[in-house]
Amino acid sequence: MSSCLAQEVHLARRHEEILAQRSELLQQMETYLRDKKTKKTWQTQAADAAHKRNAALLNDIEAAEKRLQERMYLLPHPDTVKLETLYWASIKESLPKWEEFLLGRAEVPIGFKKMKATKQSINYPEEDSQK
Q: Are 101 and 108 a contacting pair, CB within 8 Å?
């Protein structure tokens, strides 16, 4: 009978150990699931924020592209700008030579020939139909 009692005590202790182990595992499982849920919530929020940020960036890029396309039509071609700059530089350089002539105080500057005015006969279709 003492062996049955010793065996029963041993089984009771083992049962208590198993229950304690079970309780500890349940706590660990609850903690793990809570952490997993928190992590999933955080990832969802991060994904939503990234989506909003990407949408805003895409809108900004599209707006910048639109502004650049509009500017492209407003700005003259670089070759035109270069020619215009060279033209005005040439005008500034030759202006002192022409200033006296333009004011009526001197003849045409040296190196420039007088252009004779020639009458060109141009036939316009309107004039021909009226005759």
A: yes
